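Notes for week 9. Today we move from apo structures to complexes. The key idea is that a small molecule is not decoration. When we ask for a structure prediction with coenzyme A present, the ligand SMILES becomes part of the input, just like the chain. The input block below holds both the sequence and the ligand string. Read it once before you look at the output, and try to guess where the molecule might sit.
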Amino acid sequence: MSTQAGGLRGVVIGESDICDVQAEGNLYYRGYNINDLADHSTFEEVVYLLWMGRLPRKAELETFVHQLRQEYAIPEGLLAILKGFPGHADSMDALRTGVSALGMYDPDAGDNSAEANLRKALRIQAKIPTIVAAIERLHRGQEPVPPRTDLGLAANFLYMLNGREADPLYSKTLDIDFILHAEHESNASTFAARVTVSSGADLYSGIVSGIGTLSGPKHGGAALETMQMLLEIGSVDRVDDWVRPKLTGEKRIPIPGFGHAVYRQPDPRSRRLREMSRKLGELNGDTRWYEITAAIEKVVDELSNTPERLAAGKQAIYPNVDCFSASCYYMMGLDLRLFTPLFAIARTSGWCAHMMEQMKPGARIIRPRLEYIGPHDLPYIPIEQR
Ligand SMILES: CC(C)(COP(=O)(O)OP(=O)(O)OC[C@H]1O[C@@H](n2cnc3c(N)ncnc32)[C@H](O)[C@@H]1OP(=O)(O)O)[C@@H](O)C(=O)NCCC(=O)NCCS
């Protein structure tokens, strides 16, 4: 199989001390287990960890949080650009273009030094939620709400969406969701961001590559597809009829929210999101979306993880990070338009960590080869004679 058809599976492109994704179902950010971070940390602290390589001391975290909050607001000129987008624009297209424009307002534009990159990363991370919230408000025909610098990143994002403070449980749920989505080694969008800056291009260009790559349904768009599936199925008793034919036909049709390029055991992030989905359902007095997802999981397991398939070398299929985050977002009242941008807000931290690592002095441009399989020396026939 060519490496293109093989999707570069298992190809190691370099060394990194940011993140360890283990096929047996473990995930570490800078050596810390994702479950410990989800239990005890905050998204801001995780961003510090990813960028600085260690957990902050109390005063360091306070300064970092303060600096982020001071950068929440976006330039008036950018707001005017966002207002000029067509009403039907896709949220990820709008975000990609918004971030691209934001780069031109950055006082460090043109400076790719490590110090400038850290300042730029901080501005991008602080402003991306504001851009996403503004895009959503404009889509609804509402005026964007200015950020509140007394709120954390997740709480402020929910505030900007609705113009009022969210239930603390929702802010906490989103904060944990951001921690779980922050980083994942050389995933497609992070690889794209690293390739972009390896040429000497700036951090904003890398983020634009990352957003574009993340938007696909095989990557960050999977939570949206998962929720569309849940809505289409609508009730637990319809799950079997919907899922079974997709996995027993001549060619299996992938079920959104399941499968992973690296994990061969359950995705450690999905366990946590599963719990959050159940809890939100119980609090809302409607566990339907959690139950439908859990029922899909059962059928996928029954039809995928059979001794025969596994003995034939097929990979085991389990829920991935998007599987239960879909119902969590939905139960928090977040529009489907926001699902993929939410992933982008969180993953910006990982993209920036990787780009700053990639931009260390001495790194070479990433330039793999393709094996040419076309013809050679074809005779050039004048256009009139073709
Ligand atoms: C994530 C994903 C792109 C990984 O793809 P990959 O590593 O290239 O895996 P493959 O597509 O080669 O699949 C390998 C086998 O597992 C099966 N499989 C993979 N994902 C599956 C899914 N979501 N549902 C059912 N079967 C699946 C494939 O059918 C294939 O089996 P087959 O050879 O019998 O057809 C893939 O699992 C997928 O499309 N998932 C749905 C989208 C999604 O949730 N993406 C978010 C990832 S975090």
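The chain has a mean pLDDT of 96.
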